[in-house]
């Protein structure tokens, strides 16, 4: 992967994550709960102390700057997912982005929270330990689909600029 491709992937990842965050803001305005990034930061803080799995991350001891840490991790993951997409589709896609690769990859990235983050934070595999697992899985899938659309839109802006 060239430096130009990495730079584009960085911008695509940040742009797509911003779009996903705007989606989250809309959901919250509609009264739909979304991920509290402080819990991601709390989890990461505990990982640095050697503890990976929790029964309920919200009940774990808070860590310093957990909200800021959670937001940084959120954006780093968004950029890493974009780097993976650009690595898979290649440089040609950056010149003339199409929706499908970004959309499919965005949807595929939902595996990370459903099969890793939720279980280690105490929500269970596919949110099975939450009151509404099906609803939570669907909400995650839609949010990651929005992320995929965000990658396409961000790549389009870069290609046209």
UniProtKB/TrEMBL annotation:
The chain crosses the membrane at residues 6-27, 67-90, 102-126, 138-159. Keywords: Membrane, Transmembrane, Transmembrane helix. The keyword Membrane applies. InterPro entries: DUF2938. It comes from the Bacteria. This is DUF2938 domain-containing protein.
């Amino acid at each position: 992967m060239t430096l130009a491709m990495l730079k584009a992937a960085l911008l695509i990842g940040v742009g797509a994550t911003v779009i996903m965050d705007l989606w989250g803001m809309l959901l919250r305005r509609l009264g739909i709960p979304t991920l509290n990034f402080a819990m991601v930061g709390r989890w990461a803080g505990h990982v640095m102390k050697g503890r990976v799995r929790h029964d309920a991350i919200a009940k774990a001891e808070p860590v310093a700057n957990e909200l800021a840490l959670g937001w940084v991790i959120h954006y780093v993951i968004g950029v890493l997912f974009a780097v993976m997409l650009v690595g898979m589709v290649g440089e040609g896609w950056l010149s003339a982005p199409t929706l499908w690769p970004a959309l499919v990859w965005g949807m595929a990235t939902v595996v990370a929270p459903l099969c890793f983050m939720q279980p280690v934070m105490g929500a269970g595999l596919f949110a099975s330990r939450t009151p509404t697992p099906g609803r939570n899985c669907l909400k995650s899938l839609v949010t990651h689909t929005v992320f995929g659309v965000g990658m396409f839109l961000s790549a389009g802006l870069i290609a046209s600029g």
